[in-house]
Amino acid sequence: PEKKVLIVYAHQEPKSFNGSLLKIAVEELTKQGCSVTVSDLYAMQFEPRATRNDIFPLFWFNMPAILKGWMDRVLVQGFAYDLSKVYDGGLLQGKLSLFSFTTGGSKEKYAIRGDIRYLLWPMQHGIMHFCGVKVLEPHICYAPENVSEEKRKEMLAAWSQRLKTLWKEEPIDCSPEWYFK
Ligand code: FAD
Ligand code: ZN
């Protein structure tokens, strides 16, 4: 059966590097026969504030506010998790997630400041795993603003390449060891 892919995209500028990563993902996954839906949060003017009309989940940690608002408003109790149905028992079992993001800091800087995996703990484990979603290796493009045009093209090509064999990937072992060992 055709795979359904939902890309939740949080960048204001279509001409940005993230915009290019998005375009590649849509093209490649569509070519593979996946049905691809893009939630372009800024273009949709997505309302990130959860109001009294929403069923309220817990409080997540850090990502662009608009994306966090999406998590807050979409991954609600009764749909994504329930009080006794969390982590491997979460309600979104059978789904896969992948966090693709870019940084301002270089890979070396992150090695000094602390492993970037610490930042992924709340997103991958605290949100996705909590809801029963398995997690693929994150895709991180370090400092696209500060590298050469050639290096940027290389990073985009690597993303395109990865997507070709995406469905063969095994999820990570989303346990504390992966993040903090
Ligand atoms: P852009 O600046 O849009 O792109 C970089 C370059 O790529 C541009 O010159 C663009 O023209 C070019 N480009 C686009 N498409 C292509 C293409 N197809 N081929 C070749 N080149 C192309 N960083 C951290 O590391 N840690 C933080 O905690 C952090 N906090 C931040 C907080 C805020 C509020 C903000 C605004 C930024 C923060 N940053 C942080 C930096 C941020 O992560 C980077 O600015 C961002 O990741 C860069 O991605 P971009 O898509 O905006 O790049
Ligand atoms: Zn986990």
From TrEMBL:
It holds the Pfam family Flavodoxin_2. GO terms for molecular function: NAD(P)H dehydrogenase (quinone) activity. Residues 3-54, 55-163 form the Flavodoxin-like fold domain. Keywords: Oxidoreductase. One of its GO terms (cellular component) is cytosol. InterPro entries: Flavodoxin_fold, Flavoprotein-like_sf, NAD(P)H_dehydrogenase_qn. PANTHER family: NAD P H OXIDOREDUCTASE-RELATED, RIBOSYLDIHYDRONICOTINAMIDE DEHYDROGENASE [QUINONE]. Belongs to the NAD(P)H dehydrogenase (quinone) family. This is NQO2 dehydrogenase. It comes from Rhodinocichla rosea. The gene is Nqo2.
